[in-house]
Amino acid sequence: MSNTFPALRRFLSSSIAQGLLILLLPFSMATLVVAGADLTRMEHIAATRYGPEAAASVRDWRAMLEASIGSDDDVRLARINNFFNRRIRFDEDTRIWQQSDFWATPLETLSRAAGDCEDFAIAKYASLMLIGIPARQLRLIYVRARIGGADSKLSQAHMVVGYFPTPEAEPLILDNLIGEVRPASRRPDLTPVFSFGSDGLWVGGSRESAADPTARLSRWRDALQRMRAEGLDLAP
Amino acid sequence: MSLIKQLWIAVLCITLLALGGSLVVSTLSARNYLVQELTVKNIDNAGSLALTLSHSAKDPIMIELQIAARFDTGHYRRISLVAPDGGMLAERSHEDATPGAPDWFTRLIPLQAEPGVAQVQDGWKQFGTLTLESNSRYAYESLWKATQRLLMWFSAGGLLIGALGSALIKRIVRPLNDVVAQAQAIGERRFISVTEPGTAEFRGVVRAMNALSRRVRHMLSEESERLEALRQRTQHDELTGLMTRTYFMRRLESALSRENARSGGVLVIARLGNAATLNRMLGRHTVDALIRAIGDCFKQVAMGCHDADVGRLNGTDFAFLTTGHEDAEAVANALRGLLAKVLDTFHDKASIALPMGAGAFASGTQATSLLANVDGALASAEQEGAHTLKLAQPERSNRTHRDISGWRSALEAALNGGNLRLGSFPVLDTQGALLHFESPVRLSIDGDWQPAGYFMPWAARLAMTGLIDAAVARQAVARIRSDGRPLGINLSAESLCDAAFRSDLLALLDTAPAVGAQLWIEVPEYGVVQHPAEFRELCRSLKPHGCRIGIEHAGRPFDRIKDLHDLGLDYLKVDVSIISGIDQDTGNQNVLRSLCTVAHSIGLQVIAEGVTNTAERDALAQLGLDGMTGPGVHLQS
User: What are the angstrom distances between the C-alpha of B479 and each of B421, B474, B503, B517, B561?
Assistant: First the structure.
């Protein structure tokens, strides 16, 4: 069922999503800041689609997020970073998803308990938005990472999450290569290339309709659509 | 609303709906497609420009130049770079005055593509947010052009569908017109049959109507045959099949009172001499055979004439009556020739004497005097020999003798001088209400108003009956216009074949549409028998004017009635030979009763002619007749 008729599945789950959303909105409002998110529903989907371990992971994630809401920046950044760094095993997309490049939603990553650098980044980005950090303070950043030590010539393409406490400040980097959350100046092994987020996609108050075929053309917009179908709507 | 209009409106609505819907759907889906494309372009271009800017020098001039370079060489409406604190770092915009399509179109179908937003980095720092909007002018242009093209094609398509629809509807409805015509004909009591059309629904209707017509025809032919058989039994002699005395006398009276082109004729009486001796010598059977043979002879000659009656006046007397000829000698000689052959076969057995007396008569002659004359001639023939023919002296009349050219000038003088008058005899129904006034024609000739019987035979010979009838019709129309009472006019049988007269009559009726319904037109029976096709044509052309059409002097074989079912006739006037003495003649009563039943079943009114007294009137009313006219019928004013 999970790989057959993805479009149909998506359509059905989005319409079911609308219905359940109406019913469960009061509950979700009580628990999480972002009104569009419905982690109860995500739990159900996890349970039905991926099994009880995935549902347990989602519950843990939810508990972690709820615990982090009121905390300081340092505490919550560290908590989120550690949650995923410890739980998710780093692996290639070809091995996890049998595809050359696949950007997994947080639920998909949690269900496999494995992901590559984009999956880590997306999961952490989503978590940060769920606890109420506005999109303009967060970025997903393409970086060139030097691996193997300070003098190594080896580098690889990598993605990290950047958190900007103020617009002019340098970002704090959430990464899976180094578990600690450090400011960018203390990460000489990373060279930034390009950054993007989800805020530019909601300009003008438009919401992406599930029927927009061009949304599936870009991996990022596609990932955002699938997140929405699972109950994770990152629109402001 | 007519069926064609309804079909048209349906086709129009469907076409408009289909094409209109297609147009709207096409335009909207084109619009959606264009918006999607523009949005994707915005996002992609913003992303790539942001990437370029992120890796270039960040001094304002460079930024400015990069943005300008992209803007000027691309199709953009606005490119702006905003710093994280909200300040504008660089901007280029381009408000195009002409969007490429009419204002109402851009307002009706807006193309709102989301601008592309991307982030520019300076190392790790956020440098600014780039917003990029593509120019939608070309999109509008292409949308507008596409819409125009679609509209044009759909209009062309609509017109084509309109034309095809017309042709198709006409084809579908064509058999319907025939069906309607048949239904109307049946409504007018013309029980016609048409070929079954191809369309299933119409076929069913037409089949039913054809079945109705067929049944009516069948019933009519059966009934008329039965009627004819009944009439034969009542009116004809058993042995020879010739008319009985009473009936023959009535026919004679009727022929003498006729006022049309067939006034005047010849009466021949033959007597078989020594009947008792013959009986003794030859025996009953042979004598019966002889009498039958003589009767057949007479019948044969009668069939050769147009309008001849043959009767057996008593055991030995045979009478022959024909109208329209005045040459007694020729008729009698024709008879004699045939009889001679018959008598030859019996000659070896006994000598048979068959003397004949013949006399001509004209309109106005009295029956008694004619019979006396011919009897006298017969008596003198008997004196002279076995096979003598004696002609009766023609009555001295005080009319002027003319030859044919004399008659022509007299008739022309009367017509051109307007010396034409119409008589007036009421025709009443059983309640005494007026049906119409019979209006026989009178011309002033020889200083006196002469009845039709005086001049019509000559008019027929001169082929002037059409002119007389046309003049009669004009006078009748004028009279109806002035006093509004219905009139009945007589048409000659010869006028039926006169195409000029027919077109004159139709033109006259066209000029006076209200008059048609008050006009009763009747044709003598022998005319209908002689010219059935012309009579049918006349009926068909007069029907739309509302005129009532009838047959007068009907009394001959009734089996012709079955041919009347599809003419749409209105009435039948029964000859005086059947009506006279109806209160006592049970045989004729049965005939009339059956005739009324048959006629009513196809919607004909039956009117009696020559009604003389109240006894006859009461008897006729009881038999079911619809009207009567005659010397005994007067309008109570």
Answer: 11, 9, 21, 14, 33
